[in-house]
Amino acid sequence: RRGSTRSLVTPVSRCCSANTIGPWSAPWNSGQRCRCGRSTVSKGVAMSSDQEGLNAERYVEHLRSLGQVPASGFPRGLAVVLGAAPRVWSRKSSSTAFGQLRLSPSGGVGLLGTALAGSPSAAVLVTCCAALGVREIIVVGRGGRTLALGATDSPPHVMVLDSAVGDDATSVAYGREDRVHPNQSLTDRVAAAAESSGLSPARSGTFSTDVPFLVAGPRLELVLAAGGVVEMEATTLFAAASSVGLDLAEVIVISDTRTGDDWLPRSPAHVSETMNRLARMAISVLEQGSGVSS
């Protein structure tokens, strides 16, 4: 099934003013005009007018030709840290189109620190990781928590996500109709490891939205019904992973809390340290699952 998966990733073209090629670059397609006025020409990718030209496998081959992903692909198990690049191993990282990649000493597990944010980027990452040979992903992210009026902020501040609903369009394109779920077995392993690591996690649902600053009125009610956690990627991560047959789980750190009109951001240093601990935990879970150790 993986070989026939179609994604919404459009190969990107290069011209005199587009010096980088990657999934976050402007999606100029062959035959369109660049901002310099020239017609763009895709390099290294055979484009066609039908949907067969728009798949992650072809895009990944394009990135390989540019040296923007390893020729051997990504490792089978991958810990992805959103918005950070923690150091788990004292090994040099390599730059890829998706962020900074470090490999375990065995090479069987990787750590990817990426600046992606939002559901479209999440879809690009998951579909391309599947095309690069990844089979398990544990995502370490951050999110906000919305409390009912009168409630006070208290632990836990680490949430293992077990379901997601949202109002983004990308996850719908990947098959989401209502609530979506991560891989249950991998999620259970993550929850058990977080508990063993002393992180005192809770299982929670989440509400994914592309407009976190507009969580009010009916949208606020949906957030509370989903579990009170708000972030931008989970619905698409779960839906896209399911569509390409990839096992994925996500654990997040609560970075801020909202109650009514009150907004309480947590210490950035504390959030960063907790994400580092979760990254190490994710690596351990993946290594145990693959039978390797660092």
| Tally of DSSP helical segments | 7
Largest sheet: 5 strands, mixed, barrel
**What's the N-to-C terminus distance?**
32 Å
Strand content: 15-25%
Radius of gyration computed on alpha carbons = 19 Å
Helix content: 25-40%
- Mean of pLDDT: 80
- From the helix content, strand content and strand pairing, which structural class follows? alpha/beta
pLDDT < 50 runs, ≥5 residues: 1-50
Features:
7 helices; 10 strands; alpha/beta; 294 residues; disordered N terminus
Give a brief outline of the structure:
The protein is of the alpha/beta class and 294 residues long. The protein has seven helices and ten strands. The chain has a five-stranded mixed beta barrel, surrounded by four helices.
